[in-house]
Design a protein that fits this description.
Helices cover 52% and strands 5% of the residues. The protein is built from five helices and two strands; from the N terminus they run H-H-E-H-E-H-H. The chain has a two-stranded parallel ribbon. Strand 1, helix 3 and strand 2 (82-84) form a beta-alpha-beta unit.
Length: 128
């Protein structure tokens, strides 16, 4: 039959989790979860784990760039380490992506136009 988007996502996720479980039970990979301040773990990660990949989540939102890059380089004892990360707060640092960037009475007309165009776009895009 026809799959919904939710069914397809569930199928893909289930398939990937089953593959991960097979790898973990066969010893092909190991996953270690540690609850600690990362700065306290850098040396252990670098000297003992030699990671092939590192997922940083959105840590870059909470430490300055120099500190973040220092930690990433320190953990990359394997020169092929792949690093993954993302920012949840990018819109706070990019002017113009939030309507609050256009505060004040002199921007009232611009704000109204942004809201009008946004509503029009939403209505066209999400028409039932």
């Amino acid at each position: 039959g026809t799959l919904t988007v939710i069914d397809a996502a569930f199928f893909c996720l289930t398939k990937k989790l089953a593959k991960l479980a097979r790898w973990a039970t066969s010893g092909a990979i190991s996953i270690e979860l540690v609850c600690s301040r990362f700065e306290e773990m850098v040396d252990e990660i670098a000297e003992e784990l030699h990671p092939a990949t590192m997922s940083w989540s959105n840590l870059c939102d909470y430490v300055n760039y120099d500190e973040f890059h220092w930690m990433a380089r320190k953990c990359s004892t394997n020169s092929n380490t792949r690093h993954y990360g993302y920012s949840m707060n990018w819109s706070l640092k990019v002017f113009g992506v939030n309507i609050i960037d256009y505060a004040g009475p002199r921007n009232a007309r611009l704000r109204a136009e942004i809201i009008e165009r946004s509503n029009k776009f939403a209505m066209q895009t999400y028409r039932a």
